[in-house]
Amino acid sequence: MGNRKCKERSEISDEAVLSHEERHCLQRMFKSLCHDHSACSKEDLREHWQHSMERGLLTLFEDYFFKSDPEKSIYYDTFISLFVKLAKDPCDEKVKFMVSLLKQNSSDGALTVSNITEYVKDIISSYIIILTVMDHIMLKSWMTLGTEISDSKLVLMAQSLCQNLEKEENVEEGIARWFGLCSQFQKLQTSFLYHLYHIPQEGMTHGDESAEYCLFPLCKGVPPQHKLVFPSVLKVPDVLFVNTLLPSAMQHQWRFCFSTGIHGESFAKMLGLIVDKGPTVIIIKDKNGNVFGGFASENWTVGPNFQGDEKSFLFSLYPEMRVFESTGYNSHYQYLSVQQQTLPNGLGMGGQFEYFGIWLDAEFGKGHCSETCTTYRNYKMLSATKHFEVDHVEVWGVGPEFEKKDTEGERPSIRERDLEAKAMLQLAGKTLHSEGMDDNADEA
Question: How far apart are CA 344 and CA 436, in angstroms?
């Protein structure tokens, strides 16, 4: 027994890759897991983990520990080796371990795209399961709105994350390239393992509550009267997919701004609620059922010029999940204009006038998605048809609360305070006679 213990402890050289806090948390968890004994049985592990992940993933982990001898017990060093190999090791070592882990249950010892996609789906699903078991405030803020965990969306998300693997002639050789480029899955797998092994990550404070780090954003700002029946097209995997694509500073919270299900089909109302709210995520559903949108990385302001920067991107959520990032070819990221005589009036992202990647017309209810878009890489038409009818639109402010920089001591004019009223006047073709008067006063 002593020889077996020494052999198992030699599987990792030491705990040098672990911080003092990580080491303390792992020791405490193992002690609880094996009921103060020196070793952990398969039954102990299953009892502790069976409610925290998908059955297929639990079987995979159990086989790693116990396949050679189901009756044996494992010691501390072996127990933490799974965490170290998948969460702490360098990228190339993680890939080697993942390959060996997945091949151990393959009938012919070969690794396929299907094997990896199923593993990715189980990691995503298990991440949601473990946060649900924890009653994590971030995920809970979405679940209480009735946001559903859709199995079909879990499949779409896994397929999206694995799409580049399908282009590889040799999957086993290509998995290293795929893993190195798929930062979304790297974040998901690492965060899941930290939660599974009860190791706290950097957290955030919300009011009087503190929340452990999570890849879901905190949902804020939904009117209380709409919380029980919130008209969103987003599913839980949709929120996770889009949020993990955002810049890290924008991932902590989403603030509700606008929904046609609450505010009605009014471009003026939407404009009044999204201008000067900072970076936003826009989601659109067309009458054919396609769901798509974009991340606007800069504050929306009304004007005849394009705005934004290369952090912006477009995405599809149904019938497939895809992201289209900046090509750097042009800077046509955001456009918002009303009451222009020679330029289009509405909201656009990407492309060029009359050929936007996404376009919502100021005459609310219709829009278009161009068949090509040079602003975003590998773009494909997002709507079911080039010209579409709007079924639903919602807009979320993301990241820290946006603070508009006003000149200290100045009192904003009524035009600046009521953007919706201003937009309605402009859309109605009314002339704003006071426009520019503030500038003239400054010059005087």
Answer: 22
